Amino acid sequence: MSAMRPSSVQSGVYLQVGERRFITTEETLTDESPFFSSLLRHPHEAQADGSYFIDVDPDVFEHVLRYLRHGVLPVFYDNAKGHDHALYHLLLQQARYFQIERLRRWLVCRKYLDAVQTTITVEEVDHMYELSQPTGAHVEVEYHPIWKRNVVHMCPRGIDEYESDSSASSMQYMSLQGDEGKTFEEEEVPGMLVIRKETVFDPELCMSYSIFN
What we know:
The chain has helices at 26-30, 34-40, 58-70, 85-97, 101-108, 112-115, 168-177, 203-208; strands at 12-17, 20-25, 52-54, 77-78, 82-83, 116-125, 139-154, 162-163, 183-201. It has 213 residues and is α+β, with helices and mostly antiparallel strands. The chain is built from eight helices and nine strands. 31% of the residues lie in helices and 31% in strands.
């Protein structure tokens, strides 16, 4: 009968990364990283308290460890700021240092860009009732008041003025007015510029990506 595998706490590996301390398992560290496989084969390299000291940025290393634990490739995206390319660059340096090939390829090939798709549309509306509301948390809408110029036809024969458009009613007015004495004026009218931004995230790509893709 095979021996029972120790719990993750009992078989924990302690890492002193910069000024922060992390605890994980040997299996987590060595599954994809030849660096850690080599390190843990040499227990004499551990410090007096049994931990292994690694001189890298701990705030970046936490993303490395999260990847090794779960296998989900990272996307650092904010709707307001976009992708955090500085963090991607720092993470790439550690992916190379720890020899994590799948993570390195994800960053080098910038596959994270494929995981987030953004569509932006711009629309002018004349009336408030035409304004559509956001349909989900992934949709952001900005409203910007604008002034528009409309051409108004003035008729000396006393027929009411009308705004220039292509509607059938306007064509009827033009027919009634005729060509005699027709004048044109411009007037400013309020409107609204609607900018709609829709962001779609593909979590499946972060889990299924292969270096052979």
